[in-house]
């Protein structure tokens, strides 16, 4: 065998021995920013193409969104036909903010789905307790990957935002943790959301007693930890998290892309890559 074929053979063997860098599952959390706010140059009609482009560049398998109005969801899948989305709004219909879950139709299918409210009566649609001024809820689904039939749960939520809502956020965290504890232990769970509080909070402590925080545990982090930037591009708070159990986080990225000084939302989206 001549020298060149020997080199080629050695390189091919070395390449085959390297572990695959492709993630089994790409998960994004993305606060859309409601289309009803008085955002002027940052209104939805000015950024809906950029919003879709941001998703297209990262190409996540599944996305938990917050503050989503039906028109925003429909605009997005019109631009990204490989995705679809589902979920009721926080009043149980489709006229207000949704915790809409988007997923790639070519790689995932929904086995079952549902929702519950963060209150003393979680099964009561639009129920409000704990001092909340709006209903708060969780949208969820059991997904199956079409390539190998592996399953996982995805939960998506949006906690109250006021300083005085810390007790409501803590109660919400405990309710979600209790709900997750009843799921089959052998099925992975991923929780996405805008939690409107930092990782030093009781809310985070309650959830990470049984879940891991992808930002803290993934061996590779990219971008700033902070996510809320109010359309300035300068984030000040890490309030958007991806928490999980039963899978391995391989990398996490805060997405700071913009175009002509405009951002797709007032939050940076976060994407985590997982291996089963």
Description:
- This protein is α+β, with helices and mostly antiparallel strands and 276 residues long.
- It has one domain: Endonuclease/exonuclease/phosphatase (Deoxyribonuclease I, Chain A, 4-Layer Sandwich), CATH 3.60.10.
- Helices cover 24% and strands 28% of the residues.
- It has a 7-stranded mixed sheet. A 6-stranded mixed sheet has the order 5-6-7-8-11-9.
- It starts with a helix and ends with a strand.
- Mean pLDDT is 93; it is low at 1-21.
- It comes from Luteibacter jiangsuensis.
- Keywords: Endonuclease, Hydrolase, Nuclease, Signal.
- One of its GO terms (molecular function) is endonuclease activity.
- Residues 28-267 form the Endonuclease/exonuclease/phosphatase domain.
**Structural class given helices, strands, pairing?**
alpha+beta
| The level-1 CATH class | Alpha Beta
The major pleated sheet works out as: 7 strands, mixed
Secondary-structure element string:
HEHEHEEEEEHEHEHEEEE
Topology (SSEs and partners):
Elements: H1 3-17, E1 25-31, H2 44-58, E2 62-66, H3 70-79, E3 83-86, E4 101-104, E5 108-117, E6 137-145, E7 151-158, H4 166-181, E8 189-194, H5 202-207, E9 212-213, H6 214-217, E10 221-222, E11 240-245, E12 248-254, E13 270-275
Parallel strand pairs: 1-2, 7-8, 10-12
Antiparallel strand pairs: 1-13, 2-4, 3-4, 5-6, 6-7, 8-11, 9-11, 12-13
Keywords: Endonuclease, Hydrolase, Nuclease, Signal
GO molecular function: endonuclease activity; hydrolase activity
Signal peptide: 1-22
């Amino acid at each position: 065998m001549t020298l060149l074929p020997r080199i080629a053979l050695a390189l091919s063997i070395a390449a085959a021995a390297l572990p695959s860098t492709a993630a089994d599952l790409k998960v994004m959390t993305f606060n859309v920013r409601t289309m009803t706010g008085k955002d002027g140059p940052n209104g939805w009609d000015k950024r809906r193409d950029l919003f879709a482009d941001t998703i297209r560049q990262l190409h996540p398998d599944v996305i938990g969104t917050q503050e989503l109005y039906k028109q925003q969801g429909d605009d997005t899948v019109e631009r990204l036909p490989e995705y679809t989305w589902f979920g009721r709004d926080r009043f149980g219909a489709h006229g207000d903010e949704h915790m809409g879950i988007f997923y790639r139709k070519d790689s995932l299918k929904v086995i079952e789905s549902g929702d519950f409210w963060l209150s003393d009566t979680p099964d009561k649609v639009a129920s409000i307790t704990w001092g909340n001024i709006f209903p708060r809820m969780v949208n969820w689904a059991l997904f199956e990957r079409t390539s190998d039939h592996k399953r996982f749960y995805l939960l998506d939520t949006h906690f109250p935002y006021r300083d005085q809502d810390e007790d409501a956020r803590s109660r919400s965290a405990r309710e979600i943790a209790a709900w997750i504890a009843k799921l089959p232990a052998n099925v992975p769970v991923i929780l996405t959301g805008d939690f409107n509080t930092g990782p030093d909070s009781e809310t985070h402590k309650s959830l990470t007693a049984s879940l891991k925080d992808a930002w803290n545990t993934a061996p590779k982090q990219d971008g700033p930890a902070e996510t809320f930037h109010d359309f300035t591009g300068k984030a000040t708070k890490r309030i958007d998290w991806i928490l999980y159990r039963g899978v391995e986080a391989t990398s996490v990225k805060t997405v700071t892309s913009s175009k002509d000084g405009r951002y797709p939302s007032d939050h940076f989206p976060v994407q985590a890559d997982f291996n089963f």
